[in-house]
Design a protein that fits this description.
Layout (H helix, E strand, L loop, with lengths): L22 E5 L6 H13 L4 E3 L18 H13 L2 E5 L3 H9 L4 E4 L1 H4 L2 H11 L6 E4 L6 H13 L5 E5 L16 H10 L4 E4 L1 H5 L5 H10 L4 E5 L17 H10 L12 H38 L7 H17 L4 H23 L2
Parallel strand pairs: 1-2, 1-8, 2-3, 3-4, 4-5, 5-6, 6-7, 7-8
The structure holds phosphoenolpyruvate and manganese (II) ion (MN).
Phosphoenolpyruvate binds next to loops.
């Protein structure tokens, strides 16, 4: 059965006032005090930000960290809307959060990475949203699982929501990295390919985890044609009660936004012929690669036959080690990264083993 295609509404038809591409959402990680919430909002409004964010309930990794001011903060958000005319958004993680946020007129809700990883929580939230018509943004789950992310989006869609955005905030990793959450951009590209019209927002604050990385990550997101950015900001970042290292002042945000180059997908005066030509070349090379892979797998089948007749094991550790080592050297000479070559050859080798297995057990 063909999977039903989700009929999502693209950003330009969301009908939100003053919201163009790139859509910018900013505000503190957490609402802390009424003064901090309102002052940050006024400063953001002054630099042209029209969507405000603040976490009211904070999902923290360990107990004892600041867990958000709770419902009281919703009144501060309501004031932001009244005083600045900005749209307001907050994170919801359970049914109670949804009802309370809707009651004070929150315009956009987002679902955090720990929640989108949990189908039970997602279903409860989706049920609570039945019949509600506001945009919902869904962060990627903490683990790099596109199906899980897509599943979370589908649950919200099934509740009747059509203005859906995905927030790419990177993925947890045990390994040390310059990022707080490794971006793994290919997952964001994949979810976009699966769900046409899905609004894609990048969250450089939670990917980078530090101020210096916000600009380059934002630029990369724009170069990948994301629809918008969610960036944490605070009137006094060093004193923030959560995520202090990654928050920036509205003033710094303004500098970053001014420095970002926005490129067109199909610029009117660019020579599309050239791009078309280059794409043709790529398509041709891909066809050749495909043919070569097919050739190679045919040889694998012959090898499988030989090993079967001679009662040899399929996997030969020595041969594989030599092969991988040589390929890395050859790759190096061609300016192909070691990790890339290693990944490609591991995949090819695995497929070759599968083919030999087929022959062996015929
Ligand atoms: C946040 O936006 O402050 C937050 C908690 O993000 P995430 O769910 O991406 O960790
Ligand atoms: Mn945060």
């Amino acid at each position: 059965m063909m999977k039903e295609e989700l009929q999502l509404i693209e950003l330009k038809d969301w009908g939100l006032e003053n919201v163009d591409k790139p859509l910018i959402i900013s505000g503190p990680c957490s609402a802390e005090t009424e003064e901090q919430v309102l002052e940050t909002a006024h400063q953001l409004k002054k630099i042209g930000v029209n969507i405000y964010r603040a976490g009211i309930w904070k999902p923290r990794t360990k107990p004892g960290s600041f867990e958000g001011v709770g419902s009281e903060g919703l009144q501060w958000l309501r004031k932001v809307k009244e005083e600045t005319g900005m749209l307001i958004s907050t994170e919801v993680a359970n049914v109670k959060h949804v009802y309370e946020a809707l009651r004070v007129g929150v315009d956009i809700l987002w679902i955090g990475a720990r929640t989108s990883a949990n189908p039970f929580a997602m279903q409860e939230i989706a049920d609570a949203l039945q019949g509600v018509d506001i945009p919902i943004l869904i962060k990627n789950p903490v683990n790099p699982d596109v199906d899980l992310w897509e599943g979370a989006i589908e649950r919200i869609y099934k509740a009747g929501i059509r203005r859906i955005g995905a927030i790419h905030r990177g993925f947890s990793s045990y390994e040390h990295s310059i990022y707080r959450n490794v971006p793994q951009w290919q997952l964001a590209i994949d979810i976009q390919r699966r769900l046409p019209n899905l609004v894609m927002i990048n969250d450089p604050s939670h990917i980078g985890g530090k101020r210096e990385l916000i600009q380059p990550i934002s630029q990369k997101a724009m170069d990948l044609n994301f629809d918008g950015l969610m960036i944490e900001s605070h009137i006094d970042p060093d004193k923030a009660w959560s995520d202090a290292k990654q928050q920036i002042t509205p003033e710094t945000l303004n500098l970053i936004l001014e420095s970002i180059v926005i490129r067109d997908v199909n610029p009117e005066n660019a020579s599309l012929d050239t791009l078309e030509n280059l794409r043709h070349k790529i398509d041709k090379i891909d066809d050749d690669l495909m043919d070569l892979l097919q050739e190679r797998m045919k040889v694998s089948l012959n090898i499988g036959q030989y090993k079967k007749e001679n009662n040899m094991t399929i996997f030969q550790q020595g041969r594989w080690n030599t092969l991988l080592k040589n390929h890395k050297i050859k790759g190096n000479k061609r300016e192909l990264g070691e990790e890339f070559i290693s990944k490609v050859y591991k995949a090819i080798h695995q497929e070759s083993i599968n083919k030999q297995n087929e022959v062996m057990n015929e």
